Amino acid sequence: MKSRILALILAAASLLGLAGCGSSDKEKKSSRTKRTKDDTSVVTSKDSEKADVDYDNKTPFSDLDLSEKYLVGFQYSTNDLFEYDPYVTIRYRYDKKVELEGAFSTGTRAETRVLEFDLTDDQFDAVTSAIDLYKLYTLDPEELDPETTYDGGYTYLYMYGKDDDILYSAGGFCPMNKDFGNMLHAVHTNLPQELLDAYEQFKYRFHFQNDVQCCDYGVFLSDDIDVNAITGYDLLVVDAQFLTAGDMDTLRQNNQYILSYINVGSLESFRPYYDEYADLALGDYENWEDEKWIDVSSERWQSFILDTLAPQLLEKGIDGFFVDNCDVYYQYQTDEILNGLATIMEGLVDTDKEVIINGGDVFLDAYTSRLGYWSNVITGINQEMVFTYMDWDNDMLRARVGDCDEMKYYKDYIEKYADFGAFIFLLEYTDNAGIEQRVKDYCRDHYFSYYISDSLELD
Question: pTM higher than 0.70 for the full model?
Answer without folding.
Answer: no
